[in-house]
Amino acid sequence: MAKEWLYGKTLAQLGGVTAxxxxxxxxxxxxxxxxxxxxxxxxxxxxxxxxxxxxxLSGEYEVGGVSPSAxxxxxxxxxxxxxxxxxxxxVESAYIPDGDRATLCVSSQAGCRMGCxxxxxxxxxxxxxxxxxxxxxxxxxxxxxxxxxxxxxMGMGExxxxxxxxxxxxxxxxxxxxxxxxxxxxxxxTIGVMPALREFLDRTKVHLAVSLH
Length: 213
Prior knowledge:
Blueprint: E1 4-5, H1 11-20, H2 27-37, H3 51-60, E2 61-62, E3 70-73, E4 79-84, E5 90-98, E6 101-105, E7 109-112, E8 125-129, H4 132-140, E9 150-153, H5 163-174, E10 186-190, H6 196-203, E11 207-210
Parallel strand pairs: 1-2, 6-9, 9-10, 10-11
Antiparallel strand pairs: 3-4, 4-5, 5-6, 7-8
Helix pairs in contact: 1-2, 4-5
């Protein structure tokens, strides 16, 4: 059975993990640094944790992450990546270079239940929500990861229909203990799901795009 991912957990969630495993209070912040600042692939690489702590973590968790299973490139340099999900479905993300800008369009759900007539994804129906780790993995696991200047939640799915996981991914992207991105580099696109939209505006500073149709 696959182990639960540490990647995609917020600092508060990592603190809950370390508390339950009897690790020091500061260990959650150490793990966050390894995940989001240093980008380790294995728990055993977290060398400022004791060997006993790493063994306890490894008993229940793994760092997590998957590589894209396919990529298609167009003549303008745009690349479409296909990622397997933890439940056996697949989602797409698109890398879009444009001069000094490099934007990644990420998915937040496998499928979508909103049923927008103009959207191919909506015709599939909803398979499942992506975890924060699966959302952020699309950013981390492409060769162009370090070139990215912007991130847009405009791929498969309605982000505000997966509110908690999208909000967690935004926290990790923008927090000092996470990737430390400016909120101005991130845009979330929605058709206007309420009341999640109001809470989103209250709790984040990222850009919002609303699709009216």
